[in-house]
Design brief:
Blueprint (H helix, E strand, L loop, with lengths): L1 H4 L3 H9 L3 H13 L4 H17 L10 H7 L3 H7 L5 H19 L12 H13 L5 H19 L10 H13 L4 H20 L28 H10 L5 H16 L3 H5 L6 E2 L4 E6 L4 E6 L2 H13 L22 H13 L10 H14 L4 H8 L4 H5 L6 H9 L7
Antiparallel strand pairs: 1-2, 2-3
Helix pairs in contact: 3-4, 4-7, 8-9, 9-11, 10-11, 13-15, 13-17, 17-18
């Protein structure tokens, strides 16, 4: 790899003679495959040379964050340049170069905050997956809630068997005081109730108090529709119809949210082979049902995806459709999709209760309801198994309410 970057034999020999030459060459090859420019690779190679020399005191390169911070002292580089340098900037740059290299090599020893009684939580998670068949996403979310409580309780230096209902009530009250929404606190209570019911069945704690765990009351369908109106969605998509690479990609993504009602995880996991151009189908990876659901590929949707694939999407090894715009190229995550959707919805200048992908899913359901589709048809479009789940997304049929308000019931009174 060094021969491809440098032409001067002395420079090549210098890089080959420095510590961890094979590890640096392998990482630079990986960066090249990720689409980094030649100039960027040259810069990385030079900076990795300094990083490798500073980390040569660690023969196996197993470096912790504290050790990396200690190694980020660049006095020797200042002396090499012969002039004072911005030490804070160089310190930051050292960390930014070294950390991804160490992660690529599998040598980055990120400290993990221990969770007290983690073995019990792991047993519960395994049971939820094996016996109950819950999705990995659901188990991870519940484990996060349970881990928050166990970390809080662990500070009291008490055994697990000593947990009582008062501890859980105190923790839930503290969550509310810390600014958690009522719905989030309720989700926490539901996760703890399931966990302690399982713990009680196995004799880890008292079996009686699991059913007594109560979260705050949240009224079903208490809020108005949380997505933008359909004219606002159309205006947003029209604003993104530009030649800018980011707009081309984001317009295709937002169309999947608004026209098909896809979830963020489903768009993140959408792969190139899921688009059947010959049959004009797009197969959504329904994560909750562990299956794919075919949809007709509308001409406008197909044109938006083709434009993105031809003009914007980089050539790389990833099979996911939507990738980052700059190297290292990688699939967009669910949080990344939430961020870009929120950014574009904020640009509308209109207030909406939510600004993530689910807001556009609400807009899709409300539009279909206004167009006269039944809840069963809307539920099939959204990938629901029951009409009860669909009613959450289509809470208010404004056109229908106007007809009721205009109805003259005088003859009936």
């Amino acid at each position: 790899m060094f021969e491809q970057l440098f032409t001067n034999p002395a420079a090549i020999a210098c890089h080959r003679a420095a510590p961890y030459a094979e590890e640096r060459a392998r990482y630079l090859t990986h960066c090249s495959q990720q689409g980094y420019s030649h100039a960027t690779l040259l810069l990385k190679a030079r900076e990795l040379l300094w990083v490798a020399r500073k980390l040569s005191v660690y023969p196996d390169l197993r470096v912790t964050p504290a050790q990396l911070e200690a190694a980020a002292e660049w006095q020797d580089r200042q002396q090499a340049y012969g002039r004072p340098l911005n030490t804070q900037l160089i310190h930051t740059r050292f960390i930014a170069v070294a950390r991804p290299w160490l992660r690529f090599l599998g040598c980055w020893c990120e400290p993990i905050e221990p969770v007290p009684f983690s073995k019990l939580m792991a047993d519960f998670a395994a049971w939820r997956q094996d016996a109950r068949g819950l999705s990995v996403t659901t188990i991870q979310r519940q484990s996060w809630y349970i881990g928050q409580f166990l970390r809080w309780y662990g500070t009291q230096q008490r055994s697990f068997a000593d947990i009582c209902l008062g501890d859980i009530d105190t923790f839930l009250a503290q969550c509310g005081r810390n600014g958690w929404a009522r719905l989030t606190v309720r989700n926490m209570a539901n996760a703890l109730r399931a966990f302690f019911r399982y713990a009680g069945q196995h004799g880890w704690c008292q079996a009686a108090f699991a059913d007594a765990i109560q979260g705050p009351r949240v009224f079903a369908q208490e809020s108005l529709p949380s997505g933008p109106t359909w004219p606002q969605v159309q205006s947003l998509l029209a604003c993104l119809d530009t030649d800018r690479p980011g707009d081309i990609r984001d317009r295709a993504i937002l169309m999947l949210f608004a026209m098909y009602g896809f979830r963020a995880s489903e768009v993140a996991k959408l792969r190139l082979e899921a688009i059947d151009w010959e049959r004009n189908l797009i197969r959504a990876p329904r994560t909750k049902q562990r299956r794919t659901q075919p949809y007709p590929l509308r001409p406008t949707m197909g044109q938006a995806i083709i434009r993105y694939l031809q003009k914007v999407r980089p050539t790389c090894e990833h099979r996911e459709v939507f990738l980052t715009l700059y190297p290292p190229f990688r699939p967009l995550s669910g949080s990344g999709l939430h961020g870009l959707t929120s950014k574009h919805l904020q640009s509308l200048g209109e207030h909406t209760a939510h600004r993530g992908p689910h807001a556009l899913r609400h807009s899709c359901a409300a539009y279909l309801l206004a167009e006269g589709f039944s809840l069963k048809e809307i539920g099939d479009h959204l990938g629901h198994h029951s009409a009860a789940a669909t009613r959450i997304y289509a809470k208010v049929d404004l056109a229908g309410l106007r007809e009721v308000a205009a109805f003259d019931g005088g003859e009936l009174l």
